[in-house]
Amino acid sequence: MTDNGSEPFPLPLLTSPDPAELPLPPPARPAAGVRLLRGAVYGIPDGSRPLAVDLWLPEDAAGAVPVVVFVHGGGWRKGMRDDAGPRFRDWRPGPFARLAQAGFAVACPDYRLSGEAPHPAQADDLAAVLAWLHTRAADLSLDTGRTVLWGESAGGHLAALTALTRHTRAGSATVTGCVTWYAPSDLPGLAEDHPEGAYDPKDPASRESLLLGGAPADRTEAARDASPVTHVSPDAPPFLILHGTDDTLVPARQSVRLAEALRAAGHQPDLRLLTGGDHLWAGLSDADVEDCYLRTLEFARRCTSA
Prior knowledge:
Elements: E1 2-3, E2 7-8, E3 34-43, E4 51-58, E5 65-71, H1 95-101, E6 105-109, H2 121-135, H3 137-140, E7 142-152, H4 154-165, E8 175-181, H5 190-193, H6 207-212, H7 220-225, E9 239-244, H8 253-264, E10 270-274, H9 286-304
Parallel strand pairs: 5-6, 5-7, 7-8, 8-9, 9-10
Antiparallel strand pairs: 1-2, 3-4, 4-6
Helix pairs in contact: 2-4
Protein name: Alpha/beta fold hydrolase
Domain BD-FAE-like: 54-262
GO molecular function, one term: hydrolase activity
């Protein structure tokens, strides 16, 4: 390729920058004792937008701190990286600032949505953010050997899938725990878990179909590969699994399936089924929602204790 038809165009100008070498965003201070670096670029997939991560950091930590990676929900189709759901939007300080005040670094990444790329792009993006965090650990004072994944709904599915497939890769953060809130775990089992007629595995417009690039009934291998239960093994990290008994979007049986698979592999997952809870914690009292958050915080502490 030439510039103006004569001189060779400098090829380095056509390549994307290395996210590990880009400058970090300037810090904001959204709450006492918290620094927020909003929108650091961690990945630039071919043919896609740059992917960014927000970093909530303790202001005056003495040494490297453990990491919580929060994965947002939205049916793999939408969502915002800094949104833990409607029950937390009026918290002041918010849930991520509170984790930073408790001594954690919190990373809230974008990932490619199903309208941008099908599975496994989303899990690839989470693997990329784990590698980026490890690469930038010295810059950010992170102890990435103590990393907990936490996700809600579709984000919980992606957190579990990542924790079960990519938790001990060289050159990456080590996942020492995983928290899922009302998350799918067995895509082929959804038809059985929903009330009769409520879910059609042949529907090409379902959230799962858009994730897989085709209806689950037709993309059976992809549906299995995208299911966390498929990847449970004896070396899985500890799990905290929270789900409402009255979830009308993702049946609670999905979380039971994950817990049963983990037990069969020799683990002792902490499964909590919250009576009356619907998706996004609708139907629960404010006290019950706060308890879900506090359980998540305490689990993260246990999984990252030195």
